[in-house]
Amino acid sequence: MRNDKSPKVKLKNFMPYRLNNLSERVSVALSRIYSDQFDVSVPEWRILATLAEHPKLLAKEIGLQTHMDKVKVSRAVSALDQKGCLIKQKDSNDSRAIRLTLNERGIELYREIAGKALEWEKALLKELDNEQQQTLYDLLNHLDRRVNRITNQ
Q1: For residue 68, what are the contacts with CB-CB under 8 A and spacing of at least 6?
Q2: 49-75 pLDDT, tens per residue?
Q3: Is 43 exposed, middle or buried (0-12, 13-18, 19+ CB in 10 A)?
Q4: Is the CB of residue 63 less than 8 Å from the CB of residue 69?
Q5: 4 has a pLDDT exceeding 90
Q6: Is beta strand 57-58 parallel, antiparallel or unpaired with respect to 86-90?
Q7: What is the mean pLDDT of the chain?
Q8: Cα 84 from Cα 65, distance rounded (Å)
């Protein structure tokens, strides 16, 4: 028999659901820019952005930075390589490992997409004043640290 006093989750008020839902909708909306205009997938964009910020990474390191699994990283790296966006160099410590860096074409593609992505972000946040934007980022950083503490116990 069902207990009417049992805890109930209302998804519209359940923060993990709301964050995940919002994140997915933002990601899909933003991905239209680089997918439609540049034929770049979400994983490819994440790798472009990661390598623009941190050159000479191993695929494993990219996976850790972007929270993408090994298969997704491998497929996206392969696609970016086929598009002529990467420089591959053997790792000096492990001859089986390959360090990845953006070449000129990859850097140019990153810059074009980054400009449009930043414009999109600005439009999204337009109705928040500077203090609200700072509070949003402070809360996101706080939750990020909290999740790390909870999951690393």
Answers
A1: 43, 46, 62, 76
A2: 999 999 999 999 999 999 999 999 999
A3: buried
A4: yes
A5: no
A6: unpaired
A7: 94
A8: 22
Q: What sign has the CA pseudo-torsion 33, 36, 37, 43? A: positive
DSSP assignment of the chain equals ---TTS----GGG-HHHHHHHHHHHHHHHHHHHHHHHH---HHHHHHHHHHHHS-SEEHHHHHHHHT--HHHHHHHHHHHHHTT-EEEEE-SS-TT-EEEEE-HHHHHHHHHHHHHHHHHHHHHHTTS-HHHHHHHHHHHHHHHHHHHHHHT-
The pLDDT tens digits for 72-96 are 999 999 999 999 999 999 988 888 8
pTM of the predicted model, to two decimals?
A: 0.86
d(CA 49, CA 106) in angstroms, rounded, equals 10
CA dihedral (141, 21, 80, 110) positive or negative: negative
- Say whether pLDDT at 113 is over 70: yes
Average pLDDT over residues 11-32: 95
